[in-house]
Amino acid sequence: MSNRSWASTPAVRRSMQSNRSRDTKPELLLRRALHARGLRYRVCTKPLPDLRMKADIVFRPARVAVEVRGCFWHGCPEHHRKPTANSEYWTAKISRNIARDRKNEKLLSEAGWLLIAVWEHEGPADSAALIAEVVGRRRGGSP
């Protein structure tokens, strides 16, 4: 490990590198709940071809994108705790993530899409019910 690493120790570096970007436990639970409601969707795909972002779950006909956000990585207003090690680095990193999330939401909205952010601590059944209702409404039918 070089002296310039963002990680405070080699163990922290290994732990952070092992974090998944897709198919996380909260994401899988939400997808199962949505599937059980009869909803079909695309996984880890771009809602818009020119947008760098890949949404976790995409309902193309309804123009709904769902992002399952981790409390640490996306600065959850309820659960995010400022790290004590490398605080300056992580504070800047989380701030950039929040700014990127806001920018993506704005770009999607301008293109007629709705981005639903689901926090990892939210129950998959309740989140699936909300998403089903929104998708149904945007498709012009009942959920």
From TrEMBL:
Keyword terms: DNA damage, DNA repair, Endonuclease, Hydrolase, Nuclease
GO molecular function: endonuclease activity; hydrolase activity
An annotated GO BP: mismatch repair
Transmembrane segments: none
Region of interest (Disordered), residue spans: 1-24
UniProt cross-references to InterPro entries, sorted A to Z: DNA_mismatch_endonuc_vsr, Restrct_endonuc-II-like
Signal peptide boundaries: none
Family matches, as CDD domains: Vsr
Family the entry assigns: Belongs to the Vsr family.
Protein name in UniProt: Very short patch repair endonuclease
